[in-house]
Amino acid sequence: MKILVTGGAGFIGSHTVVELDKAGFEPVIIDNLYNSNRGVLEGIKKITGKDFPFYEIDCNDTQKVRELFEKEKFDGIIHFAAYKAVGESVEKPLNYYENNLISLMVLLRAAQEFKVPNFVFSSSCTVYGQPDEIPVTENTPRKPANSPYGNTKAIGEDIIRDYVHAKSGVKAISLRYFNPIGAHESALIGELPNGVPSNLVPFITQTAAGLRKSLTVFGSDYDTSDGTCIRDFIHVVDLAKAHVKALELLDAQTETDFYDVFNVGTGEGYTVLELINTFEEVNGVKLNYTIGPRREGDVEKIYAQSDKVNNVMKWYAEKTMANALRDAWNWQLKITTQQ
Ligand code: WQD
Protein backbone atom coordinates (compact mmCIF):
# COMPACT_ATOMS: atom_id res chain seq x y z
CA MET A 1 0.00 0.00 0.00
CA LYS A 2 1.31 3.43 -1.03
CA ILE A 3 0.92 5.97 1.78
CA LEU A 4 1.25 9.74 1.51
CA VAL A 5 2.96 11.09 4.64
CA THR A 6 2.50 14.86 4.86
CA GLY A 7 5.08 16.48 7.12
CA GLY A 8 7.08 13.29 6.64
CA ALA A 9 10.38 15.11 7.24
CA GLY A 10 9.19 16.21 10.68
CA PHE A 11 9.74 14.69 14.12
CA ILE A 12 6.83 12.23 14.27
CA GLY A 13 6.49 12.01 10.49
CA SER A 14 10.06 10.81 9.92
CA HIS A 15 9.80 8.11 12.59
CA THR A 16 6.49 7.01 11.08
CA VAL A 17 8.05 6.72 7.59
CA VAL A 18 10.59 4.29 9.08
CA GLU A 19 7.89 2.20 10.76
CA LEU A 20 5.71 2.19 7.61
CA ASP A 21 8.63 0.81 5.64
CA LYS A 22 9.29 -1.85 8.29
CA ALA A 23 5.63 -2.90 8.09
CA GLY A 24 5.80 -3.28 4.29
CA PHE A 25 4.06 -0.04 3.31
CA GLU A 26 5.37 2.27 0.56
CA PRO A 27 5.71 5.79 2.01
CA VAL A 28 5.78 8.94 -0.14
CA ILE A 29 6.88 12.07 1.73
CA ILE A 30 5.68 15.62 1.20
CA ASP A 31 6.97 18.46 3.33
CA ASN A 32 7.47 22.20 2.79
CA LEU A 33 10.58 22.02 5.04
CA TYR A 34 9.27 25.00 7.05
CA ASN A 35 10.12 23.15 10.26
CA SER A 36 12.55 20.53 8.99
CA ASN A 37 15.38 19.94 6.52
CA ARG A 38 16.60 17.50 3.88
CA GLY A 39 19.10 16.03 6.33
CA VAL A 40 16.16 14.17 7.91
CA LEU A 41 15.62 12.39 4.57
CA GLU A 42 19.27 11.30 4.68
CA GLY A 43 18.72 9.91 8.17
CA ILE A 44 15.67 7.96 7.01
CA LYS A 45 17.71 6.57 4.09
CA LYS A 46 20.55 5.48 6.41
CA ILE A 47 18.07 3.62 8.64
CA THR A 48 15.98 2.00 5.88
CA GLY A 49 18.49 1.83 3.02
CA LYS A 50 15.80 3.36 0.82
CA ASP A 51 15.31 6.65 -1.02
CA PHE A 52 11.57 7.28 -0.60
CA PRO A 53 9.92 9.67 -3.08
CA PHE A 54 10.04 13.20 -1.62
CA TYR A 55 8.18 16.25 -2.90
CA GLU A 56 8.80 19.71 -1.44
CA ILE A 57 5.16 20.75 -1.43
CA ASP A 58 3.09 22.98 0.85
CA CYS A 59 -0.18 21.22 1.60
CA ASN A 60 -1.99 24.54 1.17
CA ASP A 61 -1.01 24.56 -2.52
CA THR A 62 -4.05 22.95 -4.13
CA GLN A 63 -2.53 22.82 -7.60
CA LYS A 64 0.68 21.10 -6.48
CA VAL A 65 -1.25 18.66 -4.28
CA ARG A 66 -3.61 17.73 -7.15
CA GLU A 67 -0.69 17.25 -9.53
CA LEU A 68 0.85 14.85 -7.01
CA PHE A 69 -2.38 12.87 -6.66
CA GLU A 70 -2.58 12.65 -10.46
CA LYS A 71 0.94 11.27 -10.52
CA GLU A 72 0.90 8.90 -7.51
CA LYS A 73 -1.98 6.53 -6.71
CA PHE A 74 -2.29 6.56 -2.91
CA ASP A 75 -4.01 3.92 -0.75
CA GLY A 76 -3.83 6.12 2.35
CA ILE A 77 -2.76 9.46 3.80
CA ILE A 78 -1.21 10.22 7.17
CA HIS A 79 -1.50 13.96 7.74
CA PHE A 80 1.12 15.37 10.10
CA ALA A 81 1.92 18.66 8.34
CA ALA A 82 0.82 21.55 10.58
CA TYR A 83 2.22 24.38 12.66
CA LYS A 84 2.49 23.11 16.23
CA ALA A 85 4.01 25.72 18.54
CA VAL A 86 1.43 26.47 21.24
CA GLY A 87 2.92 29.83 22.24
CA GLU A 88 3.35 31.01 18.63
CA SER A 89 -0.25 30.10 17.90
CA VAL A 90 -1.42 32.53 20.61
CA GLU A 91 0.59 35.33 18.95
CA LYS A 92 -0.38 34.46 15.34
CA PRO A 93 -3.79 32.75 15.46
CA LEU A 94 -4.77 33.44 11.84
CA ASN A 95 -1.54 31.85 10.56
CA TYR A 96 -2.45 28.73 12.55
CA TYR A 97 -6.10 28.54 11.55
CA GLU A 98 -5.26 29.22 7.92
CA ASN A 99 -2.29 26.88 7.61
CA ASN A 100 -3.58 23.97 9.68
CA LEU A 101 -7.19 23.95 8.50
CA ILE A 102 -6.84 24.95 4.83
CA SER A 103 -4.14 22.30 4.32
CA LEU A 104 -6.39 19.70 5.93
CA MET A 105 -9.28 20.57 3.60
CA VAL A 106 -7.04 20.59 0.53
CA LEU A 107 -6.00 17.03 1.37
CA LEU A 108 -9.53 15.88 2.16
CA ARG A 109 -10.79 17.21 -1.16
CA ALA A 110 -7.94 15.48 -2.97
CA ALA A 111 -8.60 12.22 -1.12
CA GLN A 112 -12.23 12.31 -2.21
CA GLU A 113 -11.48 13.32 -5.82
CA PHE A 114 -8.77 10.72 -6.28
CA LYS A 115 -10.55 8.01 -4.25
CA VAL A 116 -7.97 7.53 -1.52
CA PRO A 117 -9.85 5.35 0.99
CA ASN A 118 -7.89 5.84 4.22
CA PHE A 119 -6.99 9.02 6.17
CA VAL A 120 -5.13 9.21 9.51
CA PHE A 121 -5.12 12.59 11.27
CA SER A 122 -2.54 13.82 13.77
CA SER A 123 -4.60 15.20 16.65
CA SER A 124 -3.62 16.01 20.21
CA CYS A 125 -4.57 15.61 23.87
CA THR A 126 -4.85 19.39 23.95
CA VAL A 127 -8.47 18.88 22.82
CA TYR A 128 -9.19 17.83 26.43
CA GLY A 129 -7.96 21.11 27.91
CA GLN A 130 -7.67 20.62 31.70
CA PRO A 131 -9.80 17.48 32.14
CA ASP A 132 -12.02 17.14 35.22
CA GLU A 133 -10.99 13.52 35.55
CA ILE A 134 -7.77 11.69 34.67
CA PRO A 135 -6.76 9.48 33.05
CA VAL A 136 -8.73 10.74 30.04
CA THR A 137 -10.67 8.38 27.80
CA GLU A 138 -11.91 9.14 24.28
CA ASN A 139 -15.29 9.91 25.89
CA THR A 140 -13.84 12.53 28.21
CA PRO A 141 -15.57 15.70 27.10
CA ARG A 142 -13.41 17.96 24.96
CA LYS A 143 -12.89 21.42 26.39
CA PRO A 144 -12.12 24.72 24.72
CA ALA A 145 -8.48 24.29 23.79
CA ASN A 146 -5.91 26.36 25.66
CA SER A 147 -4.50 27.70 22.40
CA PRO A 148 -5.34 28.32 18.74
CA TYR A 149 -2.99 25.41 17.97
CA GLY A 150 -5.07 23.07 20.12
CA ASN A 151 -8.24 24.50 18.62
CA THR A 152 -7.05 23.67 15.09
CA LYS A 153 -6.80 20.04 16.23
CA ALA A 154 -10.32 20.05 17.72
CA ILE A 155 -11.81 21.77 14.65
CA GLY A 156 -9.80 19.45 12.41
CA GLU A 157 -11.38 16.43 14.08
CA ASP A 158 -14.86 17.90 13.55
CA ILE A 159 -14.15 18.67 9.88
CA ILE A 160 -13.02 15.08 9.29
CA ARG A 161 -16.00 13.59 11.18
CA ASP A 162 -18.51 15.59 9.12
CA TYR A 163 -16.62 14.91 5.87
CA VAL A 164 -16.61 11.13 6.46
CA HIS A 165 -20.30 11.14 7.38
CA ALA A 166 -21.08 13.07 4.19
CA LYS A 167 -20.27 9.90 2.27
CA SER A 168 -16.94 11.17 0.97
CA GLY A 169 -15.91 7.56 0.50
CA VAL A 170 -12.92 8.16 2.79
CA LYS A 171 -12.54 6.30 6.11
CA ALA A 172 -10.64 8.17 8.85
CA ILE A 173 -9.04 7.90 12.28
CA SER A 174 -7.88 10.76 14.52
CA LEU A 175 -5.01 9.92 16.85
CA ARG A 176 -4.81 12.10 19.96
CA TYR A 177 -1.13 12.25 20.90
CA PHE A 178 0.08 12.95 24.40
CA ASN A 179 3.68 14.08 24.82
CA PRO A 180 5.95 12.54 22.17
CA ILE A 181 9.60 12.36 23.28
CA GLY A 182 12.81 10.55 22.36
CA ALA A 183 14.43 9.64 19.05
CA HIS A 184 15.24 6.63 16.89
CA GLU A 185 17.68 4.29 18.71
CA SER A 186 20.17 4.77 15.84
CA ALA A 187 20.39 8.51 16.65
CA LEU A 188 20.01 9.09 12.89
CA ILE A 189 16.66 10.89 13.25
CA GLY A 190 15.11 12.76 16.17
CA GLU A 191 13.55 16.04 17.25
CA LEU A 192 14.92 19.16 15.52
CA PRO A 193 13.24 22.14 17.19
CA ASN A 194 13.70 25.45 15.39
CA GLY A 195 15.22 28.13 17.67
CA VAL A 196 14.56 27.98 21.41
CA PRO A 197 12.62 24.77 22.17
CA SER A 198 9.24 25.28 23.83
CA ASN A 199 8.89 21.58 24.65
CA LEU A 200 10.42 20.11 27.78
CA VAL A 201 12.69 17.32 26.55
CA PRO A 202 14.57 19.15 23.79
CA PHE A 203 15.14 22.00 26.23
CA ILE A 204 16.53 19.50 28.75
CA THR A 205 18.88 17.84 26.24
CA GLN A 206 20.11 21.20 24.93
CA THR A 207 20.76 22.36 28.51
CA ALA A 208 22.60 19.14 29.36
CA ALA A 209 24.65 19.57 26.17
CA GLY A 210 25.64 23.09 27.26
CA LEU A 211 23.67 24.87 24.52
CA ARG A 212 21.34 26.46 27.13
CA LYS A 213 22.43 27.77 30.51
CA SER A 214 19.63 26.28 32.58
CA LEU A 215 16.16 24.76 32.38
CA THR A 216 13.32 26.57 34.12
CA VAL A 217 10.70 24.24 35.58
CA PHE A 218 7.43 26.09 35.09
CA GLY A 219 5.81 25.91 38.50
CA SER A 220 6.13 23.65 41.54
CA ASP A 221 2.90 24.59 43.30
CA TYR A 222 0.53 22.31 41.40
CA ASP A 223 -1.62 19.73 43.17
CA THR A 224 0.71 16.81 42.40
CA SER A 225 3.18 14.62 44.34
CA ASP A 226 6.07 17.05 43.88
CA GLY A 227 4.18 20.16 42.79
CA THR A 228 5.17 19.95 39.10
CA CYS A 229 2.85 19.13 36.20
CA ILE A 230 1.98 15.59 35.16
CA ARG A 231 2.17 14.42 31.54
CA ASP A 232 1.99 11.18 29.55
CA PHE A 233 5.41 10.99 27.89
CA ILE A 234 5.31 8.54 24.96
CA HIS A 235 8.32 7.34 22.94
CA VAL A 236 8.09 8.73 19.41
CA VAL A 237 8.79 5.27 17.93
CA ASP A 238 5.85 3.77 19.83
CA LEU A 239 3.73 6.66 18.58
CA ALA A 240 4.93 6.03 15.01
CA LYS A 241 3.89 2.38 15.28
CA ALA A 242 0.38 3.44 16.29
CA HIS A 243 0.00 5.05 12.85
CA VAL A 244 0.77 1.75 11.15
CA LYS A 245 -1.85 0.06 13.32
CA ALA A 246 -4.35 2.80 12.48
CA LEU A 247 -3.83 2.26 8.73
CA GLU A 248 -4.25 -1.50 9.16
CA LEU A 249 -7.48 -0.95 11.10
CA LEU A 250 -8.82 1.42 8.43
CA ASP A 251 -7.89 -0.95 5.63
CA ALA A 252 -9.87 -3.70 7.33
CA GLN A 253 -13.06 -1.58 7.52
CA THR A 254 -15.79 -2.37 5.01
CA GLU A 255 -17.99 0.59 6.08
CA THR A 256 -16.83 3.48 3.87
CA ASP A 257 -18.10 6.01 6.43
CA PHE A 258 -15.93 4.66 9.25
CA TYR A 259 -14.54 7.33 11.61
CA ASP A 260 -13.01 6.86 15.06
CA VAL A 261 -10.77 8.59 17.59
CA PHE A 262 -8.01 7.04 19.72
CA ASN A 263 -5.87 8.30 22.59
CA VAL A 264 -2.28 7.29 21.97
CA GLY A 265 -0.45 7.46 25.27
CA THR A 266 1.37 5.10 27.62
CA GLY A 267 -1.43 5.26 30.19
CA GLU A 268 1.07 6.45 32.83
CA GLY A 269 1.61 9.97 34.12
CA TYR A 270 4.92 11.32 35.37
CA THR A 271 5.77 14.72 36.80
CA VAL A 272 8.28 17.09 35.24
CA LEU A 273 10.67 16.51 38.16
CA GLU A 274 10.31 12.72 37.83
CA LEU A 275 11.27 13.08 34.17
CA ILE A 276 14.26 15.25 35.04
CA ASN A 277 15.44 12.77 37.69
CA THR A 278 15.07 9.88 35.23
CA PHE A 279 17.00 11.83 32.59
CA GLU A 280 19.88 12.40 35.04
CA GLU A 281 19.90 8.77 36.19
CA VAL A 282 19.80 7.03 32.80
CA ASN A 283 22.33 9.37 31.20
CA GLY A 284 24.63 9.95 34.18
CA VAL A 285 24.42 13.71 33.76
CA LYS A 286 23.53 16.49 36.17
CA LEU A 287 20.95 18.90 34.80
CA ASN A 288 21.09 22.60 35.60
CA TYR A 289 17.57 23.73 36.44
CA THR A 290 15.67 26.17 38.57
CA ILE A 291 12.05 26.35 39.63
CA GLY A 292 10.24 29.30 38.07
CA PRO A 293 6.69 30.59 37.83
CA ARG A 294 3.90 28.64 36.12
CA ARG A 295 3.61 28.93 32.32
CA GLU A 296 0.36 30.51 31.13
CA GLY A 297 -2.02 27.95 29.63
CA ASP A 298 -0.31 24.86 31.04
CA VAL A 299 -2.59 21.98 31.96
CA GLU A 300 -1.89 20.81 35.53
CA LYS A 301 -2.12 17.09 34.88
CA ILE A 302 -3.18 14.83 32.04
CA TYR A 303 -2.44 11.31 30.95
CA ALA A 304 -4.21 8.77 28.77
CA GLN A 305 -6.43 5.85 29.55
CA SER A 306 -5.22 3.74 26.63
CA ASP A 307 -7.58 0.74 26.83
CA LYS A 308 -9.24 1.55 23.51
CA VAL A 309 -6.06 1.67 21.41
CA ASN A 310 -4.79 -1.42 23.26
CA ASN A 311 -7.96 -3.46 22.75
CA VAL A 312 -9.06 -2.30 19.30
CA MET A 313 -5.71 -1.81 17.55
CA LYS A 314 -3.67 -4.22 19.69
CA TRP A 315 -1.15 -1.36 20.04
CA TYR A 316 0.78 -1.10 23.29
CA ALA A 317 3.49 1.28 24.42
CA GLU A 318 6.60 -0.92 24.40
CA LYS A 319 9.27 1.61 25.37
CA THR A 320 9.68 3.36 28.71
CA MET A 321 10.24 7.00 29.54
CA ALA A 322 13.82 5.99 30.46
CA ASN A 323 14.33 4.50 26.95
CA ALA A 324 13.04 7.72 25.42
CA LEU A 325 15.29 9.94 27.54
CA ARG A 326 18.35 7.88 26.69
CA ASP A 327 17.49 8.01 22.98
CA ALA A 328 16.83 11.75 23.19
CA TRP A 329 20.23 12.29 24.82
CA ASN A 330 22.09 10.12 22.28
CA TRP A 331 20.42 12.11 19.51
CA GLN A 332 21.36 15.43 21.11
CA LEU A 333 24.99 14.31 21.46
CA LYS A 334 25.00 13.30 17.80
CA ILE A 335 23.64 16.61 16.47
CA THR A 336 25.73 18.68 18.88
CA THR A 337 28.96 17.04 17.72
CA GLN A 338 27.86 17.54 14.07
CA GLN A 339 27.37 21.32 14.59
C1 WQD B 1 5.44 19.68 29.23
C2 WQD B 1 5.60 20.08 30.67
C3 WQD B 1 5.59 22.44 31.07
C4 WQD B 1 9.29 23.40 29.00
C5 WQD B 1 2.65 20.43 24.05
C6 WQD B 1 1.47 20.67 23.16
C7 WQD B 1 0.75 19.38 22.88
C8 WQD B 1 1.71 18.35 22.38
C9 WQD B 1 2.88 18.18 23.32
C10 WQD B 1 1.59 18.21 19.97
C11 WQD B 1 4.68 21.23 31.08
C12 WQD B 1 6.93 21.83 31.43
C13 WQD B 1 8.21 22.70 29.52
C14 WQD B 1 10.21 24.01 29.89
C15 WQD B 1 8.95 23.18 31.75
N1 WQD B 1 2.17 18.70 21.09
N2 WQD B 1 8.06 22.59 30.88
N3 WQD B 1 10.01 23.87 31.25
O1 WQD B 1 2.74 21.82 26.85
O2 WQD B 1 2.45 19.40 27.65
O3 WQD B 1 2.18 19.95 25.28
O4 WQD B 1 3.50 19.47 23.49
O5 WQD B 1 0.74 17.42 19.85
O6 WQD B 1 -0.23 19.64 21.91
O7 WQD B 1 0.57 21.52 23.82
O8 WQD B 1 4.45 20.04 26.30
O9 WQD B 1 6.88 19.86 26.54
O10 WQD B 1 5.84 22.18 26.34
O11 WQD B 1 5.54 20.87 28.44
O12 WQD B 1 8.80 23.07 33.00
O13 WQD B 1 11.21 24.67 29.50
O14 WQD B 1 6.93 20.54 30.87
O15 WQD B 1 5.20 23.40 32.06
O16 WQD B 1 4.24 21.00 32.40
P1 WQD B 1 2.91 20.36 26.62
P2 WQD B 1 5.75 20.78 26.85
From TrEMBL:
<comment type="subunit">
    <text>Homodimer.</text>
</comment>
<feature type="domain" description="NAD-dependent epimerase/dehydratase">
    <location>
        <begin position="3"/>
        <end position="265"/>
    </location>
</feature>
<dbReference type="GO" id="GO:0005829">
    <property type="term" value="C:cytosol"/>
</dbReference>
<keyword id="KW-0119">Carbohydrate metabolism</keyword>
<dbReference type="InterPro" id="IPR001509">
    <property type="entry name" value="Epimerase_deHydtase"/>
</dbReference>
<dbReference type="Pfam" id="PF01370">
    <property type="entry name" value="Epimerase"/>
</dbReference>
<protein>
    <recommendedName>
        <fullName>UDP-glucose 4-epimerase</fullName>
        <ecNumber>5.1.3.2</ecNumber>
    </recommendedName>
</protein>
<dbReference type="InterPro" id="IPR036291">
    <property type="entry name" value="NAD(P)-bd_dom_sf"/>
</dbReference>
<dbReference type="GO" id="GO:0003978">
    <property type="term" value="F:UDP-glucose 4-epimerase activity"/>
</dbReference>
<keyword id="KW-0413">Isomerase</keyword>
<keyword id="KW-0299">Galactose metabolism</keyword>
<comment type="pathway">
    <text>Carbohydrate metabolism; galactose metabolism.</text>
</comment>
<dbReference type="GO" id="GO:0006012">
    <property type="term" value="P:galactose metabolic process"/>
</dbReference>
<comment type="similarity">
    <text>Belongs to the NAD(P)-dependent epimerase/dehydratase family.</text>
</comment>
<keyword id="KW-0520">NAD</keyword>
<dbReference type="InterPro" id="IPR005886">
    <property type="entry name" value="UDP_G4E"/>
</dbReference>
